[in-house]
Amino acid sequence: MHGLAPVNLLLVHAPAGYGKTTTMADRLRALEARAAWYRLESGDNDPARFAGYLAQALEVQVPGCCQSTLETLQNDGYSSLESFLTDLLAELPQDDEPLYVVLDDYHLITNQDIHDSLRFLLRHIPAYLTLVLISRTMPPVGVAQLRMQGRMSEITTRDLAFGADEAQQYFESRLPYEVSRESIERAVRRSEGWISAFQLLSASAATSIEFSDFVDQLAHGNQYIFDYFDELLGQGLTEQQRTFLLRTSILDRFNAAMVMRVMNDSDGQALLSSLLGMGLFITPVDNSALWFRYHPLFSVYLRHLLSCTTQENQQELHQRAVDAWLELDHAEEAAKHAIAAKDVDRITRVLTAHGRKFFTEGQFTLLQRCLDTLPQDIIAQAPTLTLLRAWVAQGQYKFDEVENWLSAAEARLQASMNDDTQRAIEGEFSAIRAQVAMNYGDHERALVLATEAINQEARFLPTSRVAAASVIGEALFVQGQLDEALARMQDTEHLARTHHAHQNVLWALCQQSEISVAMGLLQKAYNIQERAFQYAEENHLNHLPILEFLFRIRSQIMWEWHHLESAERCALQGIEILEAQGERWYVQSHTSLAKVAHARGRQSLCADYISRIQKMLAAGDYHLDWVANAHATMLTYWDAVRDHDSIQRWLTIAPPCDPASATNHFHQCNGRNRARALVSLGQYELALPLLESLTEVAERIGLKTDLNRNHIALAYLFWQMENRDQALVHMKTALTLASTTGAVGSFLRMGKVLIVILKALINEGAIDGMELQRAERLIQLAQQQRDFSRAIRISLDEAIIQDIIDRPDVPELIRTSPLTRREWQILSLIHAGLSNDQIAEHLKVASTTVKTHIRSLYQKQNISHRAEAIELAKDLLSKIQGE
Ligand SMILES: Nc1ncnc2c1ncn2[C@@H]1O[C@H](COP(=O)(O)OP(=O)(O)OP(=O)(O)O)[C@@H](O)[C@H]1O
């Protein structure tokens, strides 16, 4: 509990609807303390009335405590509030039991006499008494001095705002549907934990989709919230204050000087102070109390008001903001306002001075928004702007545009440049062309162009050579030359460091991590990521979009190591970073979240993510790396819910795959996806050669993580083909490989059948030492894992059956009249909810045969109904697969 230690004053202050009253009431109730509660109204500015109600509130709480003061009030009255308080304090019983006097909504008090009387009270307050002021504003009762003397404590917006965990609890207890953590975190970010927004949200959204849409809407404005703010501002604003709010609403943050510039008014400081005194949604940015900002929802509201008025020239406001930010050397903010002002001259000025910095920081969206407003000719005549434009287009996979921009500049500049300059430009253009070639999959051309670029001095964009070095590393990586690729990426990192090119340093580190993952060295990859996090921390880069890449690959490792909390946290952090960049970039983070939801057995959440991923994939053009990763997760989901139609459909649109040339992780993943889809559909003969071919390539090149995953897939495939020996061989190899990769997630993804295969392997005595330990741990995890469908879908094995029979707690009949292997299989399929015809189809036998088996099974176990068979299966099988 924050500050119910004995103090003279407890101040609860925050804007409207933050839960001040509720929180205070809850805390006092929890303390079981005596509390005289007085809810003020505007009429209570009258001193006599104030005194009367205060004494009555005390009398209600401690009957008889101030009878004589009340009598004086009623008969003669007091000449001043001070004499009233003097009598009151003298009459209150002097016991040790704490007594709280709560004045709620104190911001309604404007009478200086009342403020002064509270100062007087606080000077003479006895130790057992605590004055609690609940207010939207800072009450003028000598707070600063009390704070210095350590005689007060405070509950502020920061304490009252709901964090993500509290919000989750709040929604879980109120909503009839499940909401994703991601939506909850977005709601918390957009509302800054403002409970009133949550109330509205839970009252307005009837489904999880509506919930998510509502949260999105918060960024653009919601009529109910607008109405709330309308009421809050009411008639209480002067024209000047209103103008202030409208004009400054364009700023993400402001201080008095900034306000004066944008307002074109010298009264900024006084106005700011008057508004701060109104308890509006204005928050200090830091402890210095010099910079402020609006609450995001209030800011949306004010911007809405601004857009509705014809009296303000928004373009002019933004132009003034550009100039003010440039004076303060805050280029990023200046750029944003220049874009909003659609001011070509100012944008050109900002870009010419700071465009390179934006680029090395990886601020591609900002650059793109700037460049989008510039006429083509301005860009074509400036090599640096052309380079920036082309790099941005390439970053957005608009490869055709890249060439258009480069050729336009070449045509425009040819006449006016000497050979030397032209060579320099061409060298830098080659670096981008190399990257484009890379993205088209033409590694040979990429290498040639990048080599050309790396040998040229970079005159216009200092990072061109770094980019070229990076392309060389990437090309080697996708060709499967892992050692050389890693060395190149290390060189790139060093080169980037010498240029302080943060984006490139982080990119090179992320690539080193990716290469290490491909080599199966996940711990090494993790360590490299740590270095990248440290670099970001040291250079204050935590807001850069590239950080999402880092969080994403961290999330992938965490999932593989089965640290699900951490995997989820990293994906959510990635989403937070990309919030301003647009949904298109969420594919990977959503894929991670879907994997986590799947591993936790949260079906509806997983379904939600999968459908969002599908929508994004349909709307965009993504690199195979992203697509394959997303598809892998979609396929796992469809397989788990047995949605064969979707798998079938996927096969018709799946990216082409050539397993023999799958020399990198994304081609491997893509090939494995196809194989897994075929396995799900029972087309084992088609899946097998594909997996074998992928495995052969992965082995040759040293793609150890893929090798590990391929062996897991092969083990599963052979098990489905009822080729037990081969299944065990591959599972054993997979376990051995896992001793370097540390893989867990890839095993668990298989579902409950993993338990059966591992148990078979253990029963064979085929593994020992580390592998045995790993197998046992995997069994334990798989048993704990919640399956989507509660039905058991494992094909049983002799060893498993034996394992079940050997348990002391099985029904006697199982031992005395043993079932055949077929009968065991049928029992598990009945339990899985299959009809007799489906069982026949599954086992590829006639329905009459199935019926015969069932009859025999019922007889042996003395069963007369299907429901009993299901119960029996549940009982038996739960012993090995866990609940
Ligand atoms: N911890 C909580 N859990 C659930 N609901 C809450 C919680 N805190 C506040 N609320 C709800 O939020 C709304 C606003 O709360 P409250 O009236 O306490 O805020 P306030 O800050 O005192 O507002 P005002 O400044 O308008 O007096 C109320 O409807 C209240 O029931």
From TrEMBL:
Sequence positions that bind ATP: 14-21
SUPFAM superfamilies for the chain: C-terminal effector domain of the bipartite response regulators (SSF46894), P-loop containing nucleoside triphosphate hydrolases (SSF52540), TPR-like (SSF48452)
Activity regulation: Activated by ATP and maltotriose, which are both required for DNA binding.
The job of this chain, per UniProt, is described as: Positively regulates the transcription of the maltose regulon whose gene products are responsible for uptake and catabolism of malto-oligosaccharides. Specifically binds to the promoter region of its target genes, recognizing a short DNA motif called the MalT box.
For this UniProt record, give its keywords in alphabetical order, as a comma-separated list: Activator, ATP-binding, Carbohydrate metabolism, DNA-binding, Nucleotide-binding, Transcription, Transcription regulation
Give the InterPro entries listed for this entry. Answer: P-loop_NTPase (IPR027417), Sig_transdc_resp-reg_C-effctor (IPR016032), TPR-like_helical_dom_sf (IPR011990), TPR_MalT (IPR041617), Tscrpt_reg_HTH_MalT (IPR023768), Tscrpt_reg_LuxR_C (IPR000792), WH-like_DNA-bd_sf (IPR036388), WHD_MalT (IPR059106)
Task: Determine the domain of life of the protein's source.
Answer: Bacteria
**Mind listing the GO biological process terms from this record?**
positive regulation of carbohydrate metabolic process; positive regulation of DNA-templated transcription
Q: Where is the HTH luxR-type domain?
A: 812-877
Q: What is this protein called?
A: HTH-type transcriptional regulator MalT
Q: Which residues form a coiled coil?
A: none
Zinc among keywords: no
State the species of origin.
Answer: Marinobacter lipolyticus SM19
Molecular functions per Gene Ontology: ATP binding; DNA binding; DNA-binding transcription factor activity
What is annotated about its quaternary structure and interactions?
A: Monomer in solution. Oligomerizes to an active state in the presence of the positive effectors ATP and maltotriose.
Q: Which family does it belong to?
A: Belongs to the MalT family.
